[in-house]
Predict the structure of Nucleotidyltransferase family protein.
Amino acid sequence: MNDDLTIAKIRKLVKENIGCPELIPLFDRHKCLFLRNLTGDKKSMMDIQLSKAAVTERYQTCKPLFDTIRQLPHAVIKGAVLSQDAYGSPFLRKSGDIDLLISRENLDAVKSALLEHGFIQGKLVGGSVVPFTRRELLFQTAMSHQTAPFVKETSNRLCPYVNIDVNLDILWGESGQNTDMDYVLAHSAETEIAGVTVKRLKSEMAFVSLCLHHYKDMNSIYLLYKGGLRLYLFCDIYYAFKNLAPDLDVLRQHSERLSVAPYLYYCVYYANEVFDDPDLADFLESWKGYRDDRLMDSFGLTDFERKSWHVPFEERLFAEDIRFLLDGQLDETDREKISLNERFM
């Protein structure tokens, strides 16, 4: 199936509810549980039930933690919260952890709460949780907007471990920008996931956070080299925009305050390349003043490492091994960065 035909079939499925079972392997490879379910794929129903069991275990296990940190400014982002925002259910998007967004000022308090409730800052090795070395902790802090993850063992074989990533910013580590996290976290509200009350970002700030996270995943040389582009990134953006229905004036206010509007334009632009939706097109028209041509048709997270794509968007999206498209463009510095991330991340 050529790339243009694949895009056409995806649009027919989404807009006209015309099932295309031949797309099921593609959706499976691209981690699009929601689109798989739209096709009527029988296996997707089982995967949704497994997702429900895992999400419920994660949130029930973390309920005492959420109660402890309730008075601290924070929000749960991505994962089940994003699934609820975009798809109307916390179980329709595959995820493997819970992401907490906090300010650096509250890191010690949140870390103390995690340790108090049985979490270990470590990784799984041979079925056991092994604490990170000091070197690994320092590398993660220096190279990322996240701390090294926290893990807790459960007695549930469907979800034997609960992983929590603590995010200290909505921008990536190499961005060079310092986000006003007090401003970001001031735009939060309570919601319920699997019977547990948690804090989440309000619609407009949630959409800003989503776009920044997905922009990073679409443009990180390391993440592209390890996993390639994934359709679920654009699916999340499309359905979140449609279902959150953000107030565009508030979205503009947040984007200008945080100096991130070009990244939102980029994400919506490429989501519209897949889904071709009039609401997204209207947004792009109203947002065209924020378009940054340096970002379009390029990859890399900094001006120093940014490189131009030499193939169309559809080709790089559906490439079975994107490394063949990247290999001719990566220099020694890029390869050293990939190697370092493989060792420590």
